[in-house]
Amino acid sequence: MAIIIDENTKAIVQGITGGQGRFHTKAMKDYGTNIVAGVTPGKGGNSVEDIPVYDSISEVPNDINASIIFVPAPFAKDAALEAIDFGLNPVVIITERIPIHDSIQIMKKAESKGIDVIGPNTPGIISPEKSKMGVMPSHVFSQGSVGLISRSGTLTYEIANNLSRAGLGQSTTVGLGGDPVVGLSFVDVLKKFDKDDQTKAVVLVGEIGGNAEETAAKFIKDSFSKPVVAYIAGRTAPPGKRMGHAGAIVSGGMGTADSKIAALGEGGVDVAELPSDVVRLLKEKM
Amino acid sequence: MKLHEYKAKEIFSNYGIPVPSGILVKDPNELKEFKFPAVLKSQVLVGGRGKAGGIKFADNLDEAKEKIDELLKMEIKGLPVKLVLVEAKAEILKELYVGFVVDRTAKRNVLIMSSEGGVNIEEVAQRSPDKVVKFQIDPSEGLPTHKITNLAKKIGLKGKEMVSVVGVVNRLNKVFSDYDAELAEINPLAVTPEGLLGVDAKLLVDDNSLYRHKDLAKEFAKSEEFTDIEKRAKDAGLSYVELEGDIGVIGCGAGLVMASLDTLKLYGGAAANFLDVGGGATKENMRSALELVVQKEGVKSIFINIFGGITRCDEIAKGIVDFAPKTPISVRMMGTNEEEGKQILRDNGYSVSETIEESAKEAIELARGG
Fold it and tell me: Where would a tag sit more exposed on chain B, N or C end, judged by fewer CB atoms within 10 A?
């Protein structure tokens, strides 16, 4: 198994004709992801990497069940709503800098239709050797039994690479996204990993801002039985400053790394002080 | 984007929310006449202004000028006071709180109202939860007036006063939504003999929405929220935050850069900045990153931490060699085109580490003159 995407995923790429869309469509196709069609309004009839492009999702003649979005921020809300309307699941939003009020509307619509939105501002999702819907470098991931959930991009690659080198492959890696309001949360993904037989342990990579880690800690304490190891970035971040990600900000004393580390500790999660410690802690727990 | 109080009040007033009459001055002599008593409020984009002495009172013109002069010589949390808002002091009978915020976990906008204003709302919520009401807004329904009325009743408002407060909340909701705000707050919303008055105002606009607010976007570029180097970084498309330490830090990816700062701290070092060159950085991006980092005074070494995914290590290496910083550097490089990158650096006399830990320790030693 794996969660959310696997060999049965049949994806479209919204915004396939842009530079990013083109580049990563090729990378995903090379990895083995089944990319069925692309959608860019006004570019219908063209093709990218031998993949046919349509003006809208409703014109795609094939059987499809997932979408990955590279559309620029001002048009991303509409693209996401179109995919959600069409019932594609998951909808992975790579686009960054989408206004929060737009994201709130996207998430509300997705909730009402029971659709998983990943992102915005996410590296995407990868179930190694099965399917990749994202922009991550494939070679650092390998198949195995560790579920990886993260709010960061490069730091996820760093940790996935350490895991793979230590022989700890991954079932699925989900990048939740660096924006203040994102679709799937740590808890949503933990629930999926709980039911997934392939996943034997989970690594959670958090960062400052919001209280998603605290909520996850409570969930783990109350109802998650597989071993969990975490790393939290931003212990030294000053309050009131956005550390690269729009969502990585300590405001009004909320969202500090200390609060997250303490909550996770109470939930029985081992928190690594260095990214490289994750492997050691995980091996001790498994 | 944080807006100054005077700017927030100007916007609130445009939406029909009553605010005190006032004059904005950047020099005491700009104040010619005023209906005293007056409140003199320094305009800075940091919280805790009152406690820091940034709000004064005056009963006549001479006193006002003198105190404005004092305020304009002040620095509050490192920010120099450049503007003072002079406002008529209101006779306050009661203070309420109304505000809209984004609840990241619920993924909803939330209306908060309280019968106790003028203080930190989170503290009130902890101390006397019965005095605070919160309502999550369903984006597909919006915020119907009857819902606001019910909330107003819950915090004990009634009659004409309740109707006025509901009116203010309705207008504030319009501001919150029209301005793509992350926070729109009136604290306190004062009850005066003449009616309601928004005595303090906060408006925080979502940075990512600024393409829809072109007028604000222009001001954002020169906002005092940011230091000069932070502004130059914005222009160069780099994500930069100034910090207190002496080790410059450059990396790719926000999470990885934060982890680099934390690693330095763990080994007894302190970062001078946060700089994310982003994914797929070119030689030129790396050059501008180094240019920015060395501009800060007191930077004794630079820690460069690259995990090449989309980013190519050889491009980074070329950028380093090209700029050839005088400040000693410690490079950790891994991932795409790692060997090419390392070779370029070695050929030019730079050492490269494999792990974050090694490189962080080296940067600390270099900063200490080792």
Answer: C
